[in-house]
Amino acid sequence: MRISSRQFERGSSRLGATVVEFAICCPVLFLFTFAALEFSRVNMIRQTVENSVYEGCRRGIVPGATAANVEAAARFVLDATLISGAQVTVTPSVITEDTTNVSVAVMVPTNANSWVAPFFFTDTQIASNLTMRRERGLSSNID
Questions:
Q1: CA torsion sign, 62 to 60 to 69 to 113?
Q2: Can you tell me where the transmembrane regions are (predicted)?
Q3: How far is 101 from 130, CA to CA, in rounded Å?
């Protein structure tokens, strides 16, 4: 089949329209894709912070626990999802047999933990804290 010059001209003008449509739609598509990635990462950070606070408190309420054990347990959970720059605060800083409650607070900056350029959550920090009552009993050795 032979293509006439008229058909060729009509096809080439459509090619220009396709390029213009792509030039308009491509940035919007990339914006939605990167926004979805950033929102997913922030949600993942939020869940990890909640879990690290809980695991840290669980480690601190057992007899024989120390503040270093509590912080190590919280950081272990944070390190599993490659979260950096987190601040872990254990209250009281020295856990004794007379301590009734253990509190753990974790704060994570989103700027240092974003997978893409932080556009939607610039200068934002995700924080959580939890207080649990200590268990009473014989002291044990916690690794």
A1: positive
A2: 15-37
A3: 10
Domains of the chain, residue spans: 7-133
Q: What does the alpha-carbon distance between residue 33 and residue 26 come to, in Å, rounded to a whole number?
A: 11
CATH number 3.30.1300 is the correct assignment for the domain at 7-133? yes
Q: Are 33 and 115 in contact (CB under 8 A)?
A: no
Return mean pLDDT, the chain. Answer: 85
Residue 138 CB burial class (10 angstroms; 0-12, 13-18, ≥19): exposed
Q: What is the pLDDT of residue 8?
A: 52
Q: What is the dihedral of CA 45, 51, 57, 58, to 10 degrees?
A: -160
Sign of the CA dihedral running 118, 119, 121, 124: positive
What pLDDT is stored for residue 141 in this prediction?
60
| pLDDT tens readout for residues 18-60 | 888 889 999 999 989 888 888 898 999 999 999 999 999 999 9
The per-residue pLDDT for range 111-121, each reduced to its tens digit, is 888 877 777 77
42's CB contacts (< 8 A; 6+ apart) are: 110, 114, 120, 121, 126
